[in-house]
């Protein structure tokens, strides 16, 4: 912006040390006058008068010289800044386009300005509200209050755990405006999202810890088989084929484990950033059912699909939602007995209460738990997908731990053919990123029902800038 100084604002032409020179002259003159009165009264003689006057003049000269060396320069008055209309338009455009959340806080902690990034980041409905009603972080509010008093700005870091974990660095700086009234100070608040960098640090540490723990067993097996093949079984062709087959299974298990760990790390890295696409749950369910149909047929398991009429369009990333549905259906097939059945159902436009609870309980006294819940909203509608199996079921006490990493029901030990124990953890994090819900209902001997639900896309949104992501249907 072009800043212009008001021509009426002139610096003072009076030297800053003139008041001190006046004080020195008056003090010296009064001293000489007093000595003259004493001389006229005969109290002192002429020699005393002359000597005292010279001493007083010398002290005055020393004081004057000392004052000149310690004088502080006169402070430059604050210039009034006038902004031209063209500058205002450019500044407004820049503020609207900046992707970093920026707010201007006025007296009383009220939000006077907020760019679109700040309104989206904090969920602001509009300007004019209290910052404390939106951002409940005492250290940030203290820094803003200090800036409104004209104190030095500072940076504050804070973290939130609900509804989504996030790490933010807030920069607060005071701004003085030439406005009428007793409160010229404003506070500029800039919010920088450090969630990605914080999670990257934690993901690296978690990956190393989990990988080293889970890979120890298959690596030990491979090492033992290699040692055996190089020693006692070197010339035993039958043993060699058997050991190589086991080594291949162990290698495949390590590959699956590494793939799942990398997938989980990628999901957690972007969990705080909601997706912007739109996906049809009905089409997605048909694709997964078509892809896993041969697996079900090989074990004589009936895989049925009950999709709603029309479409069930939800906010989401198609690849991640496909991974969620595939994980749930694979688990249902894995834990179902041969000749059993697995049912997939999709429903559209349900309330949160209807989405969290299935139409009827699978058994009297079955356990039901919400593993991940969306933000509260009385107007939100959801698309729901449920996967039901007729397997062994899960005891109520194990339900809270289903989404833990590497947890296996009933303390099952890891085996070459078992899963990695990361599937439901991946499902939970993807659902959380999509601001959706994840519930489970199960009873021993009766099977389980896993339900996922995501915010539905309004019809106007699908007609506009949010095209539905579609994939090739697997037959």
TrEMBL record:
The lineage, from the top, is: Bacteria, Pseudomonadati, Pseudomonadota, Alphaproteobacteria, Maricaulales
What species is given as this protein's source?
Marinicauda pacifica
Q: What is this protein called?
A: histidine kinase
- A GO term, aspect molecular function: phosphorelay sensor kinase activity
UniProt entry tagged with the keyword Phosphoprotein: yes
Domain (Histidine kinase) ranges: 210-458
What EC number is given for this enzyme?
A: 2.7.13.3
Pfam families in the record = HATPase_c, HisKA
Q: Which PANTHER family match?
A: PHOSPHATE REGULON SENSOR PROTEIN PHOR
**Transmembrane residues, as ranges?**
none
GO cellular component labels? plasma membrane
Q: Which domain of life is it from?
A: Bacteria
What catalytic activity does the UniProt entry give for this protein?
A: ATP + protein L-histidine = ADP + protein N-phospho-L-histidine
């Amino acid at each position: 912006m072009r800043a212009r100084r008001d021509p009426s604002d002139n610096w003072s032409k009076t030297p800053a040390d003139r008041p001190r020179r006046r004080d020195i002259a008056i003090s010296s003159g009064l001293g000489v006058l007093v000595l003259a009165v004493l001389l006229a009264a005969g109290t002192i003689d002429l020699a005393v008068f002359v000597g005292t006057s010279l001493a007083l003049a010398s002290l005055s000269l020393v004081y004057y010289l000392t004052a000149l060396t310690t004088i502080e320069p006169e402070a430059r008055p604050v210039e009034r800044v006038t902004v031209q209309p063209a500058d205002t338009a450019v500044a407004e455009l820049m503020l609207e386009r900046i992707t970093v959340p920026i707010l201007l806080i006025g007296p009383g902690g009220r939000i006077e300005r907020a760019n679109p990034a700040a309104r989206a980041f904090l969920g602001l409905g509009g300007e004019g509200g209290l910052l404390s009603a939106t951002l409940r972080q005492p250290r940030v509010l203290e820094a803003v209050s200090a800036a409104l008093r004209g104190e030095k700005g500072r940076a504050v870091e804070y973290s939130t755990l609900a509804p989504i974990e996030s790490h933010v660095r807030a920069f607060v700086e005071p701004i003085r405006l030439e406005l009428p009234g007793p409160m010229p100070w404003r506070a500029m608040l800039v919010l920088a999202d450090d969630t990605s960098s914080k999670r990257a640090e934690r993901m690296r540490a978690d990956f190393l810890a989990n990988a080293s723990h889970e890979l120890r067993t298959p690596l030990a097996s491979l090492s033992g088989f290699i040692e055996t093949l190089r020693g006692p079984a070197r010339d035993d062709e039958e043993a060699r084929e058997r050991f190589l087959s086991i080594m291949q299974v162990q290698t495949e298990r390590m590959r699956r484990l590494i793939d799942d760990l990398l997938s989980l790390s990628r999901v957690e890295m972007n969990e705080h950033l909601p997706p912007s696409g739109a996906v049809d749950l009905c089409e997605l369910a048909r694709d997964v059912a078509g892809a896993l149909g041969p697996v079900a047929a090989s074990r004589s398991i009936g895989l049925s699909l009950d999709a709603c009429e029309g479409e069930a369009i939800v906010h989401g990333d198609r690849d991640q939602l496909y991974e969620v549905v595939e994980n749930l259906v694979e688990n249902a097939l894995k834990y179902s007995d041969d000749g059993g059945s697995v049912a997939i159902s999709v429903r559209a436009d349900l309330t949160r209460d209807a989405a969290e609870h299935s139409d009827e309980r699978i058994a009297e006294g079955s356990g039901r738990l919400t593993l991940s819940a969306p933000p509260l909203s009385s107007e939100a509608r959801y698309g729901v997908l449920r996967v039901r199996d007729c397997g062994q079921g899960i005891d109520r006490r194990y339900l809270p731990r289903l989404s833990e990493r590497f947890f296996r029901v009933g303390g099952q030990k890891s085996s070459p053919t078992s899963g990695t124990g990361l599937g439901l953890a991946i499902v939970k994090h993807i659902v959380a990123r999509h601001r959706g819900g994840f519930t489970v209902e199960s009873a021993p001997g009766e099977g389980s029902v896993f339900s996922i639900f995501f915010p539905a896309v309004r019809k106007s949104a699908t007609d506009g800038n949010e095209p539905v992501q579609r994939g090739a249907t697997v037959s």
